[in-house]
Automatic annotation (TrEMBL):
InterPro entries: FucosylTrfase_pln (IPR024709), GDP-Fuc_O-FucTrfase (IPR019378), GT106_glycosyltransferase (IPR052272). Its main location: membrane. The keyword Transferase applies. The keyword Membrane applies. It holds the Pfam family O-FucT. GO terms for molecular function: glycosyltransferase activity. Belongs to the glycosyltransferase GT106 family. GO terms for cellular component: membrane. PANTHER family: O-FUCOSYLTRANSFERASE 2-RELATED (PTHR31933), O-FUCOSYLTRANSFERASE 31 (PTHR31933:SF5). It is a single-pass membrane protein. This is O-fucosyltransferase family protein. Keywords: Carbohydrate metabolism, Fucose metabolism, Glycoprotein, Glycosyltransferase, Membrane, Transferase, Transmembrane, Transmembrane helix.
Amino acid sequence: MSYLTSPSPLTLSGARVRTWSRARKSETICARRRRLKDAMMKPLCYRYHSQRVLAYAALVVLLLPALWPTLFSPLGHASPYVFSEWNAPKPRHLSLLKGALQGVLPNEQTSELWDPLAPQGWKPCVPSTRIYGNPVKSSGYIQVFLDGGLNQQRMGICDAVAVAKILNATLVIPYLEVNPVWKDSSSFEEIYDVDHFINALKEDISIVRELPPEYAWSTREYYAVAIRTTRIKTAPVHASANWYLENVLPVLQSYGIAAIAPFSHRLAFDNLPVDLQRLRCKVNFQALAFVPHIINLGETLVKRLKHQGRVHSNEFIKEVVDDKVSRGSGKYLTLHLRFDKDMAAHSACDFGGGKAERLALAKYRQVIWQGRVMNSQFTDEELRSRGRCPLTPEEIGLLLAALGFDNQTRLYLASHKVYGGESRISSLRKLFPLMEDKKSLASSEELSMVDGKASLLAAVDYYVSMHSDVFISASPGNMHNALVGHRTYENLKTIRPNMALLGQLFLNKSMEWLDFQHEVQNGHRGRHGQIRLRKPNQSIYTYPAPDCMCQA
C-alpha cells in the first residue's frame, strides 16, 4: 500500500474514536487531580479567608473610636459620624434663627426679664409643730421601693411619709431602685441628708434607717424571687387614704411589716386632710436636703455663674467683661434641657435627623415600651399643633431670644445627655455663647464625686436651678414639675413655655422673625411665675398653692 493512498472512512472513524477516548480519559484524570488539589487547598483557603475577615474586623474595632467617639463615652457629646443613627441635624428654622441673631430689643424691655417677682399675696405655709402627735405605738414598719429618676423618687418620698402617717406606721428610709434609663445605683443616703430628714420629721412620724434584726429578711431580693404575703404590689395610681387603711393596715397588723412596690404616684392629690397635704409639703420643701458635697459643688457653680468673668473648660481663665456690654452681670438663667434618647423616642415626634433617626427611635420605642406609646398614633404635625413635642435646643433658644434674652445672657444648661450631641445644640450655642454647664464650670476633680451618677448630677442641677434668677424647661417632666413647684413656693421667676402656641408657630415655615417675636411675647404674658391655684387631680408638687401656702 502506498503511503500516499488516502485512508478509508472506516479507518478515520476508528482513529477518531480512539483519540476521543484517550482525550476523555486524560480529562477525567485532570479533573480528579483538580478535585484532589481543591480538597487539599480548601482548609488552607478557608483559614486564609478567616484570617482576612478577622484582620478587617480588628481594623474596624480600632477605627471605631475615631469614627464614632461616643460609642465608648456615653456621657460625652455625641456627634454624627459614620455609624451614627442620625444625620447631622441642621437648623430647622433657619429664617427665624437669622432674625434672632440680628434682633435687638430695647434695654428697658430686656431689663424687666431679670426683675424678681413682686409679692403675689401668698407665702409658704407648712406646719412647724406636730400635726397629730407622734404615735405612741407604731402599727409596724413600712418599706417603699421607688423607681424613676431623682425627682420622681423625690415625690415618692413625700408620698411615703404621708402614707406612714395615714397608717400610724414607722417608715424605713426609702429604697431607690436603679432606673433602666439613668442607670444610677445611688442610695437615699448618697443623695439626701438622712439625719436632717429624720430630725425635720421627728414630731410627725417615726423613721428608722434600717429594719431591726427580726425583720432583716425583708429585702428587695426577698421580694424578687417569689410572691410574698408582706408585699403590696397592687396599689393603684393616686390611691386614696382609705385604700391604704383597707389594704395595707391589715398586713401591718398581721406581720408587723409591709413592703409597697411599686410606689410611684401611689397617693391621691385630692380628698385628703389639709394637715396631711401640708405634711407632704414639709417633706418636699424642708425635710429633703441634699448631702453637703452636692450643696458645696452647687454653690461653687452658682458663684462662678454670677461672676462677671467667663470660665473656660477646666482652666478657669476669667475674662473681664465690660459692664456696659454685660447687661445681666451677676445674674443667670437656667435652662433645663431634657432631650435625651428616651424623651425623643417617647414623644414620637420628628426632630429632623432623617430616616435613620426615625428608625432608631421607633426601634427604641419597641424595645423599651413594646411599641405602646400613645403619641405613635398621631402624625408629627398633629403632635406639634397640640403642644406634645418637647422643644428642641434650637426651638428653646428661639423662644428665649424672642422673649428678649440675648448673646450677653449667662445661661446654665441643666442637662444629662443631648440626643444628637453637639450638632444638635449648635444653634443654641450660637444664640447664647455664654452658655455653661457642669463640665465647663468645674474641674474633673471637683466633679469626681458625682461624675457618671445621673441622680447626683441631677441633684447638682436642681440646686443650681433653684438659685438662678430665671428658670425655664424645654419640656414637661418630673424635673420640670418639681422645680416649677419649688420655685413657685419660693416666689422665683419661672417661665412656663406655651407648648401649644409654640408648636403651631414652628409649623409655620414662612413666619418672619418680628411676627414670631410678637406672637411669643403676647402668648407668654402671665407665664413668668405667677401663682396658679391647684385644680382637682393636679399635682401638689407642681402647684403648691393653696395646699402648701397661705394668703399673706
